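Aim 2 progress update. The chain analyzed this quarter is reproduced below.
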Amino acid sequence: MLENFGITHGQMKNLKSLEEKRRFILDNMGITIDRLLKGWNEKLEIQERHYTQAENQYESIKREHFKDCGDSLKWLIVRTKYQALDKKLKTLIVQKLNDVTFHNLLKSIDFSSMKTRSKCWNC
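Predicted structure tokens:
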């Protein structure tokens, strides 16, 4: 178990008192845990950047696509007594469907395949 924290049997033999051994183990465990947490935080930051980039790209494409829908939504029938709302409602319906589709796609992306490997990761 101590090998997981970078402690060898020889290092433990060189320490004389029980207190020295305990302190040495705790120090090395702290260093290793800090290094693992730093790696994990870096991995999360990379995933957040990927997610933010994908979301920004999607929003840009969505804005560009819906900038001028015009008559391209004739196939969608919305019944409303106010004709002025017809185009806006059609656009909102299609946007909502695209949002749901996009978020389902993001949920299906396996961000774990993007993780960076370092010496300290055993997974």
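The helical segments are 9-14, 18-66, 86-108. Residues 116-123 have pLDDT under 50 and may be disordered. These observations will guide the mutagenesis experiments scheduled for the next reporting period.
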